[in-house]
Structure formats: structure tokens, C-alpha cells
Write a structure and sequence with these properties.
Serine Threonine Protein Phosphatase 5, Tetratricopeptide repeat, elongated, 823 residues
Amino acid sequence: MSSSQPLKAKPNPSLLGLLRLSVRYGDVEVAKAVHACAVKLGEDVFLCNSIISAYLKLGLVSEAYEVFRGMSCPDLVSYTALISGFSKSYREDEAVELFCRMRRSGIEPNEYGFVAILTACIRVLELELGFQVHALAVKMGYLDCVFVANALVGLYGKCGCLDFALKMFDEMPNRDLASWNAAISSAVKMEMHGKAFELFYEMQRSSGLGVDHITLSTLLSACAGSNALARGQEVHAHALKCGLESNLSVGNALIGFYTKCGCVKDVKALFEKMLVRDTITWTEMITAYMEFGLMDLALKVFEKMPERNSISYNALLAGLCKNGEGLRALEFFVGMVRECVELTDFTLTSIVNACGLLGDSKVSEQIHGFILKSGCGSNYCIETALLDMCTRCGRMSDAEKMFLQWPIDQDVSIVLTSMLCGYARNGRLEDAVYLFHVSQLEETMVLDEVALTSVLGICGSLAFHELGKQIHCLVLKSGFSDDLEVGNAMVSMYAKCWNMKDAVAVFESLSVRDLVSWNGLIAGHLLHRQGDKALAVWSDMKNTGINPDKVTVTLVISAHRHTNSNLVNDCRSLFYSLETDYDIKPTSEHLASFVEVLGYWGQLEEAEEMVNKLPFEPEISVWRALLDSSRIRLNTTIGKRAAKRILAMEPKDPSSYVLISNLYSASGRWHCSEMVREDMREKGFKKHPGRSWIVHENKIHSFYARDKSHSQSKDIYSALEILIVECQKAGYVPDTSFVLHEVEEHQKRNFLFYHSVKLAATYGVLTTKPGKPVRIVKNIALCGDCHTFLKYVSIVTRRDIFLRDTSGFHCFSSGQCSCKDYW
């Protein structure tokens, strides 16, 4: 320490009293007045330190630093106070610099100095410096100080070094409640939720310490993270017993817990009981309602918030994206920009995701330009989201440019995953599989839980069963079999690959199941048109106490279409009791599914009456369901009324015209069907191109109508001509009503014979061993003629034909289809 002594002045109790008052009442002007007096009186280290402390408590860090700089010989208290102030004010670099300067001046830290510098290390996760501070604390004998030891446990826990944190904790000679909280928090951060409760129980047994709001909030986070409903309810009971349920932090944690593990009634009851609420409380409620799919309630909470910030806006944007409301998210984002609300990286990432949901190329280009103009495009998370957005909006050339220009020093694994999904999403199936194989050969993709989930999703979308099984082996080998999202992805993958046996086996092997798990299994049975099994899963799910969401209900309603007996009364009861029994307001998805069920079981008039009596205008999906049911039931009267509504709502959607045309064709009204198709041609509408594919020898073989790009196209076309002749001998009569072109009848037949499904089926017959089933995937609904053709193929080739289209699975065997000609 310098030998020069500071100028001394008599301590001034009145000035110290004024400083205390300024802090108590938050009066900055009084503190600055005292500062001015101190300057005139000459340097008094004690008074200067008091002014520094007051400024820091008032949030005036820069002013505190100015006082410090004016001191000729700052002491340990001066340095420690300012290091702590910098650490807590997100000026960690300055805190570290000041700590080093203090030591260079010959002043060594005390326990408060160690805590201050470790706080800075914790905030920036500076583990290397933390190790050095730890060594210094050992050298100076401060590890026996519980505050220093607690700070080290907190540092190692925050940096993911749980072993170091627990070792530090175990070696502590003295522990207080903060010590236990730090250890428990470290375990929760590392997702070792069982370990967190072991520590809690040990604390209860050995230390005799009570709990505080931090303990309970941390344990509730552990319960939410592990979907431990019963254990979380125990923590809630403990909070009631200790009188801490009314604590704001505990209340917020309880809302978060019941959002993840409970039902909306639990959350609402907690919120209404809370006497004190902060921005976090309101934001948690927005998140909760969004999680339960109650967007209108979430928006009402947002509107009632006494104070909003970027965090509450971000929760709203994320929730809207989660519920598929990209357009509404975009509207709120525009409002944020106009109101000059802070746009964080999370905000921009959410709005990029919203654009991806919209799939609008022009809107995505505008948002892309906005982000680049704002200078945020260099952020890794935002760049990754932008690349994913490009793939979702059909801008694959832009996505490929971003991918090829990706910095070498940045992790490429995530963008590889995005490109894989992008290729699959945009129909470039071979590119997706090729990229995956290349990434494995070059070892550029880290197969973590995110990548594995994504690749399993691609395997499911492509029905690439063999590759899916290989990924399953990688999951087991890499130790991710206990990861819930990976497990859920495997259930979905096997279900989409015609393998419900393994889908059920994976589901039953899951140590923990969430709503996605149950939904995935129900959806799998629906794909296979196994309604009774889907309803049995629904019954088991209710017995576990897991509450359904709107997706579950949509699936369960649809399941009533595929049961072996008429359960329309059960379905009717479920639909009309959604709000009372499950607190779920019926949506257009539920309505559309219910209409399909009523149509299937011959209750078409009831379906139309229900739709017409709705107090609001249903979305187009409901009218489409009514129109499609009319087509199957050959009811052109109801179909025409539904068609008028559809064309009024979406006059430029070609799929609407195709549905209407098919309605007339199915009922034999060829003239009306042709008039609809003529209208399509005049307006320049084209039907979405159908594509079918087969996986053979670990390669994807894709076909479009009249496609001759395949290397074996000559053999395929020759074999198809023979197959058509054999099917016609067996009774197949081509249905030319499905042909959109205005050509002669023989030309229509020629066009019809070379649909993508027929080409794929022929290739499958040629390449699959005799007696083995042929498996085909189609990207749109199967047309009536192809459906009839495949029934005859199953007769003449004496083999089963399995096909997956947008309606589910078809199994053609001995001239019959598992869908019973209703799809």
C-alpha cells in the first residue's frame, strides 16, 4: 500500500445521515449534494466510501466510479464496493480489471472482495478466472468462510461443473441455507433433478435448517423439468405448511410448475389467489395460457398487464409461434417496433420463426432485410433461425448460400440439421439423405438430442424405415434413449414407417411420458386407421392424470371415424363437453374432425345443421370436411352448399376446385365436373403436383406423373403397360373423370395410366422380392382411379401394397383396401 496518507477531515455525522436518507427514499439529488459538500471539505476516505455505497444502492454506478477515481488512496472497502457494483451492473470486465488493479496496488481481498469478483465470474461464466480466484482463496485461507465457499459452489454450478460444485460443497466445514440452495440449484441446472431432491432430503435430515423461497422455487423448477407432478405437489404442500405460498417467487414458480405438469385450472386458481404480482407473474400467465393453447386468454392477460417489457412481448411472440399463429406474431412485432420496445435476440429469433410459419417468401425477405439492416444478422442464433426460415419459405437457394458461407469457426451441426429438414420439407428427399450421409462420413454433425430428433423426423416423413432403425441404434449407442424428445420422435418415426409394433414398444419403454408421447401414439394408431386402439390409449392417458390439449382432442375425435362399431354418440358427448370437462374451447380443427366423423357414420344432415348454427363463421377446413364427406356419401346437394362457401372464402385455391370436381365425378355428374375443371383452366389454376416414392436399397426413388427421369424408366414403363393390361383383364376400368385435361378419351386414358403412384407401384413390383409387400408414399391424397388400380394390382401380383398418403395408411390385399374405400 502507498505510504502517502490521505488528507484528513473531521467526520461529518450529518452528511452520513443525509446519505442514509437519500438511499432510504431514493433521492439522488440529496446524494449528489452530499458529494458536492464532501469535495469542498477535503478527502475523507470513510465519507467517500459511504458516498460510493450510496451511489451504488441508488443505481448510479458511473457516479460511484467518479468518486473512486477522485480518491488519492482508495482502501479495501473502496475497491470491494466498486467491484461488487460493477459485477451486479453487468460491467463484469471492469470489475475484473479493478480487482487486478487492487492487487497490483498491494491490497489483498477479504471475504467480501472474493464474493464480489466471483459474482463477476458467475455472470460471464468465466471459469478460468474462477479457478485462479479459488486458488487465491485457498492460499489466503478464506475457504473456511461460508460466503466465499458458497460463491464458488455457485460459480461451478453455473458453469456446468457439477462435480466441482458438489466436491466444494462436501468439503465445506460450515454450511448455511445459501450453501444448500447453491448445491441444489447446481443439480437442477445440470438437469439432475433426482440429485437435487437427494440434497434437499439430506438438508432436512442433517442440518435442521428450514427452507426459504429460493429452496422451494428451485425444487419446483426441478419438478417442472422432470414432469414430476406428485413430487411438485409435495413441494406445494411444504410451501403451504411454511407459509411461503404467498411469496412472490414461490407463487411464480408454482405457476411455472403447474403450467408444465398440471392443468389450466390449477394455474388460474394460483394466479387469482396471489395478492402481489410482478411482471414475471403476468408473463408466466401468458406463457401458461399459450402452453394450453388458450391464445385469447393469453392476449387478455397481456392487455391487462400494468407494465409490459420486452420479456412479456417475447413470451407472447413465442406463444403465438408455438400455436402456429405466425401472422398475429408478426402484427405484435410491428407494434413493438412502433412503440420502440427493446428488440432482443430472442425477439428477432421469434419473429423469424413466425415468418417460417407463414411460409410467405416476400414477407420473409422483408424481415430478413430488416434484421440485416439492424446489424443483428451476425448473431449465431439469429443466423441459424434465418437459414431455417428460408427453407420454410421455399427460398432454398438463399438457404444454400447461407449454408455454404457459414463461418468455419462456428458450429455447423445445427445448420446441417436445418438444411436436412429444409430439403425434406421442399421435396428434395434425395438431397436430405445425401447430406446426412456426407455429414456422417465427414463427422461434421454432432448427433445430439436435437439432431437425432430432426433426423428421426425426416425418416418418418420419408417412411425410410431402414435408416430410422439405424438412427435408433445410434440413439442407444450414444446414450440418448432416455431423452424424452428423442423417444417421442422414435414413436412417431416407427408409426409413419408402417411399424406400429415398434412404435408401441418404444412408447412403453419411455421412463417418462409427456403429452407429446401420448399424442404421438394416438396419432400413430390413427395413421393406421386403428380407431379402437387409439381410444384405448386415450383411456389409459386419462387414467395417468395427464390433461389433454387441443391436439389430443382433435386426434381423439378423429379416432371415432376408424372404430369397428358406431361410437358417434360417444364422439358427440366428447365434443360438446370439451369446455366443461377439459377447459378447452372447441376450435375449427375440432369442428372439422367432428364433421368427418358425422359424415362417416351417415349423419351428414346433422353435420351441416351444426355448422350452420355456429355463432361464428367457421374456418375453411370445416367446410372442406363437409364437402369431402358429401363426396364420399354422394350427397351433391349438401356438397354444393359447402362448395359455395369454400369458393367464397378462397376463390383462388385450386384444391377447392379439385374437391368440388371430385364431388360431381363421384356422383356421376360428369358434365358438372367438367364445368368446374373448365373454370379452373380459364383461371389458370393448376393442381398441386403429386409425387410418389419408394425406398429401395437405402435409396429414395421418386416419381411424378409421366416421369421419365428414373434410370430404369424404360423397364418401368414397359412393365406398367403389362400390369395395366393384366389389371384390365381382372376387371379394372380406368376412371377418366379424374383427368383435368380437356383431351380425347383415349388421351385421357393415356395420361391416367402414368400417374406417379402407378409408376412407383410398378417399380416396387419390379424390385421387391416375390411375396414381399410393396411400400409407397404419396405427398397428396390418392385419387379414386389409382385407388382402384392398386386394388387390382394386389390381385394380379398376389402381393400386398402398402401406401401412405395424406389421409393415412392404405393396405391393398386381394382386391380390398383397409380404408374400406372411405378416405
